[in-house]
Write a structure and sequence with these properties.
The protein is mainly α. The chain is built from 21 helices and no strands.
Length: 434
């Protein structure tokens, strides 16, 4: 019973902390004019605070002091909170809370860490929980080149718990993960009942309990959704300027969440490059900014650890003349088989493929969906190539335990297409009565 109360406490403080600062009515009048809904504001706040925590992770600061600072600032912000945002979406927020409580209890009932979390990520968490900074990561077990923003926040909420149980820090992942779904559907002009049904369906289809056993995929899942939504909202209209800034902050978090974030960011950039509403000069500016962030991260790892690479310990690329030997080519059937298994494991992919083919047949407009088609092809190619190009006798094992997770973290992008498709149906096209 006491553990359940502790979970409720952590859920409440998470709600409070990430309501700060952009829900402030005074900031709303000065910084932005557009009436963002509550889940969009939570998304903005999450991206902003996570970047703030990323900076603090390089300093030797007590994580519990950082927690109390954030909580105190957020509590003060409640006096200037735009409470009307909650009233507009009361039933949706109740559903969000039910999911968060149910999945939190699910984690508490099975708090074990899975393979990669137990040999890599947990040591980064312990590093920050014990108030060591980024520089000390060179002294801990595991792959030191793995990015750390997820583990830093994990450690912070673990410290915030009344009980010294590791799983309490992972409730944060659930919160972020669910915000992605609710932000995705928050602007649909449909009845709240239809929205609730839609949310239950897509969350149930996408949820994988294993990935909340210490993996970083839920955070990357959220960031991929948010990046794509920010990119699609960029317009010449100046009232949306906030999206430009947060698109860059989101790109930075992608780099500091997973090693393959560099590739994912470049692939997500096609949603910018292929968007006509974005000027060529601004496209150039964004891509240049992303490249700068990649170089900055690379140089930070070189400076602190004298090392920076993509992959895992022992990961080395094959020589060009080795790529097309019979021994290496024989990997392809197995890797494609693993891709197919992933499609059935995460049916978002199968639904996306079916709906995309339906659209292509109906509209007969290939260019209209070129951004999704391009991203899908290079997404699959990246997942396969990481295990195809490697000089590693254990490549098959790494493909078994890693390829599906790589595909999962980008699957949120296809949810955007699926939601837009369903929104065109008569059932989901009835405007809500307000």
């Amino acid at each position: 019973m006491i553990e359940i109360l502790n979970i409720f406490y952590l859920i409440i403080v998470t709600f409070i902390i990430f309501s700060f600062p952009l829900s402030n009515v005074l900031l709303k009048k000065k910084i932005y004019k557009y009436n963002y809904n509550i889940f969009e504001l939570y998304t903005f706040n999450l991206v902003l605070i996570l970047n703030f925590l990323l900076v603090l992770s390089f300093l030797k600061l007590d994580t519990i002091n950082i927690y109390f600072f954030l909580l105190s600032a957020a509590i003060l912000n409640l006096f200037f909170f735009d409470w009307s945002q909650f009233k507009k979406l009361t039933s949706i927020i109740i559903l969000f809370t039910i999911f968060l409580i149910a999945y939190s209890l699910n984690i508490a009932s099975y708090p074990n860490l899975e393979w990669d979390a137990s040999v890599n990520w947990i040591f980064k968490v312990l590093n920050f929980k014990n108030n060591y900074n980024f520089e000390n990561l060179i002294n801990i077990p595991g792959v030191k080149e793995y990015p750390h923003i997820g583990t830093y926040t994990w450690a912070l909420f673990w410290r915030a718990s009344f009980f010294d149980y590791e799983y309490t820090g992972r409730i944060f992942y659930l919160f972020v993960y669910l915000v992605g779904f609710f932000t995705l559907t928050s602007n649909l002009k449909i009845k709240n009942l239809n929205k609730i049904i839609l949310l239950i369906i897509i969350i149930t289809l996408a949820f994988d309990k294993i990935l909340f056993s210490g993996y970083q995929e839920p955070l990357m899942f959220f960031l991929c959704i948010v990046f794509t939504l920010f990119a699609q909202k960029i317009t010449p209209d100046k009232k949306y300027n906030l999206n430009y800034f947060f698109l860059i902050l989101c790109a930075n978090l992608i780099l500091w969440t997973k090693n393959e974030g560099m590739f994912i960011l470049l692939f997500l950039s096609f949603f910018i490059l292929l968007r006509r509403k974005i000027s060529n000069s601004f496209k150039f500016f964004l891509i240049l900014t992303f490249i700068t962030l990649i170089i900055l991260k690379h140089n930070i790892f070189i400076y602190y650890f004298d090392s920076s690479f993509i992959g895992w310990s022992g990961y080395k690329f094959l020589k060009i003349n080795e790529l097309f030997t019979l021994e290496i080519l024989q990997r392809l059937p197995y890797l494609l088989y693993q891709v197919l298994i992933s499609f059935f494991k995460y049916p978002i992919y199968l639904i996306f493929i079916i709906l995309l083919l339906t659209r292509l047949i109906k509209d007969k407009n290939f260019k209209k969906y070129l951004n999704y088609i391009t991203f899908f092809i290079i997404n699959i190619a990246m997942a396969v190539s990481i295990f195809y190009f490697v000089k590693d006798p254990n490549w098959k094992f790494h493909a078994q335990v890693g390829l599906d997770r790589m595909l999962y973290q980008t699957s949120g992008v296809y949810l955007i297409f699926i939601i837009n498709f369903l929104n065109n149906f008569k059932l989901f096209n009835i405007k809500s009565n307000k």
